[in-house]
Amino acid sequence: MNKRWKILQADTGKAAVLQESLKINPALCHILATRGFDSFDKAKQYFRPQLTDLHDPRLMKDMDKAVQHILSACSKKEKILVFGDYDVDGTTSVACMYKFLCKIYDPALLDFYIPHRYREGYGVSKMGIDFAKENNFSLIISLDCGIKSVDLISYAKDIGIDFIICDHHLPDEEIPPAVAILNPKQKDCNYPYKELCGCGVGFKLITALATELNIDEEHYHCYLDLVATAIAADIVPMTGENRILAYYGLEKINSNPNPGIKALIFLGGIQTKLSINNVVFVIAPRINAAGRMDDAKKAVQLFIEDDYNHALAFAEMLHSDNTDRKEADSSITAEALAIINEDVSLQNKKTTVVFRDHWHKGVVGIVASRLIETYFRPTVVLTESGGIATGSARSVPGFNLYEAIHACREYLLGYGGHFAAAGLSLLPEHVEAFARKFEETVAATIPEHLLIPEIIIDSEITFADLTQNFYNILSQMEPFGPENMRPVFVAKNVLDTGYSKIVKEQHLRFVVKQDKISITGIGFNLAEKFELLKKPVDIVFTLDENEWNGNVSLQLKVIDLRSSET
Fold first, then answer.
1. Would you call 188 helix, strand, or coil by DSSP?
2. Which helix (H) or strand (E) holds 66?
């Protein structure tokens, strides 16, 4: 699949001023300037994040109300239920809040609740509220959910249960009748940083409670590894407070992790220092697998466990769920690709809609993302559950998927989501009509260029720039994530040394040179472009370290290449 290359342009004046003060490679100054770190002070703050730069949690609307209500409930010996969603953000949020409340309150008057993905669905559930009522809980603290649950929180209020909502999703016009709502995205909330994840909002409430009770910061900074895991998994911007929290959370993961995280690292076979990338691709899938394949309650049990051996037992359950998830994901993706590959009419469309009644509901969203890797277009994957076709949709960058699904609502029983991803349900007999309407809608509205993947390139560079010192500074730009991605470079007029080769039939092992400087690299799934190396090429890559037999060297992780003549 051919890709579009877009090289970012920086304000050359700002980049030059930065280079003058920082005395580092101009390409790095170019990147810092494009990311808004265009002065010495901003760059210093970026390279040296400080916990003291975190905002006062009391700046968040309703924070004082939430703190006073929790302390009042504690003084009255009320029972408190900590409620959260079944994904990484939800389960880590619940674990942090539950563990902290156990420090300041009687654990016998506390419990936590994670809704079952298939029996209860996403967010606050009636079953959860009824559980609270039956067990005499008078306060529910909801984390990573609740902002849209107007009717259910009204129901809870009617039966004598108060709610404190900690959420980060965009509120609707009508907000629930909770005693306090902590969400920086509320229109009238003056909290300076708007992009916290659910666990981040919960951490702010914990910080405010600790401050009110004069509790030392070590008693809540100990949850930073869980907060960092949530930030990484929830794909929130790696800017501002998120970057500070992730930076110190990652430090804790690598020095003194929560026993649950330590057990997941062991089962994931990671023996080197963890990066955010490891958290996203090794830790997070195992946590998410609990809710996808079974019951996510055990993810919370994993994180609140203080004994490593007990934590390992829960981690092994999650590891097993993840193995099942991978098998389901792999087999369904293969089956879905076969459906498309055997039907020319499906291959030529601007959308993908595939449906089989036996596919596992917990992985259809992952499968949709996998299909986009091959057929780059808005994609819907459906299965059947209880006589209803249900599934997940994923978009390509830049296209509003939610609006396209909204335009097909005449065929749907329900739908919800946002710009890039959505969930939907419909009667099986309406799948074909929905697929036709979805194709018509997308074909009429999607610009052609959005159907070609785009690679954002941060800077042009030469092999002469690629020194160990350059890589060391690059590493200080971690943790990477949305709005602070790992820098992508382009090197032009690169020649093969004659030693590049295809490995394992689909990958390319590069040994290339530019102006007499040679460097090695790996390009996954680029074997079909091997012939291009007969002439000078431009290559797009990220820079990595490779360790072999105790020797560490720089290597390119090649993303794409094309002839220098084009």
1. coil
2. helix 63-75
Question: What's the chain's length in residues?
Answer: 566
In a domain? residue 31: no
Range of the domain at 356: 343-451
Q: What is the pLDDT of residue 94?
A: 98
CA 342 to chain centre: 33
Residues 299 and 349 in one domain: no
Q: State the distance between the two ends of the chain, measured CA to CA, in whole angstroms.
A: 17
Q: Are 425 and 388 in contact (CB under 8 A)?
A: yes
pLDDT in tens, 181-233: 999 999 999 999 999 999 999 999 999 999 999 999 999 999 999 999 999 99
Among residues 520, 525, 549, the alpha carbon closest in space to that of 453 is found at 525
List strand residue ranges (DSSP E) for 278-378, in order: 352-355
Are 123 and 241 members of one domain?
A: yes
Residue-by-residue DSSP string for 163-178: EEEE--SPP-SS----
Residue 53: how many CB atoms within 10 A of its CB?
12
Residue 372, judged by CB atoms within 10 A of its CB (0-12, 13-18, 19+), counts as middle
| Amino acid at site 408 | C
**285 phi, psi to nearest 5 deg:** -60, -35
